[in-house]
Protein: Deoxyuridine 5'-triphosphate nucleotidohydrolase
Organism: Marinobacter pelagius
Amino acid sequence: MTKKTLQVRILDDRIGTSIPFPEYATEGSAGLDLRACLKEPLVLEPGQTQLIPTGLSIHIADPSLAAMILPRSGLGHKHGIVLGNLVGLIDSDYQGELMVSCWNRGNTTFTVNVGERVAQLVLVPVVQADFEVVDEFDASSRGEGGFGSTGSH
Ligand SMILES: O=c1ccn([C@H]2C[C@H](O)[C@@H](COP(=O)(O)OP(=O)(O)OP(=O)(O)O)O2)c(=O)[nH]1
Ligand SMILES: [Mg+2]
């Protein structure tokens, strides 16, 4: 396991009191659940998308890292609550509030309660590319085949 110390700012004084500070739910958890730092419950009608504040900002600072905001499987599978941007990518130089775009892709109304865990944050390694422009690539066994070129079995 790699551990990393991240700077975090608490932007809402309910974080750490009535709304728990994010934590890894188990020793093996990859994600930290992000909670809806709302003033009041938010009703999401089918098809609606709302940007939900988390009350937190992080500064990853290290360009070899990023954070991803991913849906929670229970909310997504059972209630159709996923992310309006499908996946959120947090740049290492972003210092603003972590925001979660919640999309009700289901066909029933869903109420997001104050402090509810709406998504999860995963820290991931990043490699920035230096592009070397070439005329041709060394041959590979796949070549230009894609989009099902290897068949369906
Ligand atoms: O779910 C998300 C996605 C992004 N962000 C923040 C962090 C990220 O670093 C910044 C910009 O995100 P992105 O680059 O994906 O959005 P953009 O539409 O390209 O905006 P920008 O022009 O600011 O880069 O917005 C969030 O808080 N939540
Ligand atoms: Mg961008």
Notes: The two ends are 36 Å apart (CA to CA). The domain at 30-125 is CATH 2.70.40.10 (Deoxyuridine 5'-Triphosphate Nucleotidohydrolase; Chain A).
